[in-house]
Input
Amino acid sequence: MNRLSTLRKTRVYIISPYTRGNKEKNVKRSMAAADVLIRNGFAPYCPLLNHYQDLAFPQNYEVWLELDFEWLLACDVVYRLAGKSPGGDREEALARANCIPVIYDTEGDNILKFPVRVERKLNFKKDKADVIKDNVDHPAHYTFGKYEVIDVLEDWFEKNPLLWQTGKYIARAEHKGKYIEDLKKARVYLSRAIDRALEKENK
Output
């Protein structure tokens, strides 16, 4: 097999400030970074281009962020531009939880030293089985911290299934890519826990 057929361009997710300062200037700065990457053989994804989509068809900020999370998880490396960004912090946390390397522009041209091409992820049965097993036994959105989430839940809420579920959804909210959905699920279980507690108190 021709080796080139097993390679593809490295996908780079660009994190950069958006809501702080002038949005148009922030978008152009991110686009300039994307242009450098394109000229050097990379395949960048510039989430701030959603700025123009939002002007035509507005969406809630969290909706855009959840879409960005989906694309981030498909990338090989994250390139973070300097500047404070709460959304960027959440994107970086998701990347690190999924073992995606993060490179900062303050490190000079280090991003250009990253491999321009990477091996394609071919779906051999053995590799796929390993991935499935890992996603079932120890998924990344539950193993991002010092302790695995299930160990914490067993220690804290072993006899309280409602608080267990609440804690589970809160813990994974910023790491699975469905922030609003997980918080809504947590709210459902927390509300039921409160109702149960009130019922016992009023008896």
Remarks:
- Residues 142 and 151 are 10 Å apart (CA to CA).
